[in-house]
Write a structure and sequence with these properties.
This protein is of the alpha+beta class. Helices cover about 25% and strands about 35% of the residues.
Length: about 375
């Protein structure tokens, strides 16, 4: 028996008006989201934003206070009408952050557990277990106990257990956060490759922007129980919708200003220091006279001396170096532009971009994102 993609068993997820209350605390604030069949979606946000609660509500491990959830053409939650389909009847697979393997069971029996619970014919068990074990690279360790496995092997057992019943939806709750950096990168690639082969609708919870961008087709950014931006990784990373999203995905320099003029794909911003800059990465919803913010990553911001010729792909602002700090293989140079503190990051062994107190020009990429303040 092969564990293969089957378009007939892929299901999308439709969430409408989902609210979760713990007493007076609103953890999910009217979440509505459509996930297409076969999609790989990452729920991205800081600890406490509600992303794990959302995943557990989809799984049936937490109930909803209001709203509905459909998996495929089946309504599994309608909180206002008292509809609640038990987890074992939702055809889901789930991998937890701490794997949750049964310590007294062998790898084989851990993988088999969903088949027992969901009533699969005993005659199918061995073939299903071996097929999924080969898929995730476990066929030679089926008779070991979890205590005899490495962290990476335990993660693969948890994944095999989630996949053995051929679920319509696979839910991943930060499954790689307990692994070392090298193994995390390896398993991210393997998980994405497995998704591409099988096509199972997959929802990943993570607080790691790099993990979300590397693995998912669509990123859903959540803040305080609400969705603040949905889009492909390129949109989230290069065109953040607001300051929260920008800060969460790694932008650490912010320049405040007012929109002066819009011209096609370009926007002119008058900064608080009085300079007017033209940017090409026009944000959505901008209007003349409206406060706006420019976001720049430290590694994208560079410094130039007065004798260096301007470059077309950058806008330049006069500034003064406020300090320099070594950060291992990196060096951070801090500058002051009209009272706004900015930082530029480059390699520590590169020629210095300026000394403390020296006048420099800050170079900002003209494609830097702009959003409504």
């Amino acid at each position: 028996m092969a564990i293969e993609s089957d378009g007939g068993r892929r299901s999308g997820i439709t969430i409408a008006g989902l609210v979760k209350l713990y007493g007076s605390l609103k953890v999910l604030n009217g979440i509505s989201l459509d996930i297409e069949p076969g999609a790989f979606v990452a729920l991205l946000g800081p600890s406490g934003c509600g992303k794990t609660t959302l995943l557990r509500t989809i799984a049936g491990l937490a109930d909803a206070s209001h709203g509905t959830i459909d998996i495929g053409d089946r309504r599994v939650v309608d909180a206002d009408k008292g509809v609640f389909v038990p987890p074992q009847q939702r055809r889901l697979g789930m991998v937890f952050q701490h794997y949750a393997l049964w310590p007294h069971m062998t790898v084989r029996n851990n993988i088999c557990f969903p088949l027992r619970k969901q009533g699969f014919p005993r005659a199918e068990w061995d073939a299903r277990i071996m097929a999924v074990a080969e898929t995730v690279g476990l066929p030679t360790i089926l008779d070991r106990s979890p205590s005899q496995l490495s962290g990476g092997q335990q993660q693969r057992v948890a994944l095999a257990r989630a996949l053995v019943s051929e679920p319509k939806v696979l839910l991943l709750d930060e499954p790689l956060s307990n692994l070392d950096a090298n193994l995390r990168d390896q398993l991210r690639r393997e998980l994405r490759q497995l998704h591409d082969r099988q096509g199972t609708t997959t929802v990943l919870v993570t607080h790691d922007q790099h993990e979300a961008a590397m693995m998912a087709d669509t990123i859903v950014v959540i803040e305080s129980g609400s969705i603040v931006q949905v889009g492909p990784p390129g949109d989230i990373l290069d065109r953040p919708a607001n300051r929260f999203v920008a800060g969460f995905v790694g932008y650490d320099n912010f320049l405040a200003g007012v929109v002066e003029q819009l011209d096609g794909s370009a926007v002119q911003i008058r900064l608080s220091g009085g300079d007017v800059v033209t940017l090409r990465n026009r944000g959505s919803g901008l209007k003349a006279g409206q406060p706006a913010t420019i976001a720049v990553r430290s590694e994208q911001l560079s410094l130039a001396g007065a004798s260096q010729a301007p470059q077309e792909s950058f806008v330049e602002l006069p500034a003064r170096v406020a300090g320099v700090q070594g950060l291992g293989r990196w060096r951070e140079t801090y500058v002051d532009y009209a009272g706004t503190k900015l930082s530029a990051r480059d390699l520590a062994d590169a020629p210095p971009q300026g000394e403390q107190g020296s006048k420099v020009f800050v170079r900002i990429p003209s494609h830097s994102p702009v959003f409504v303040d």
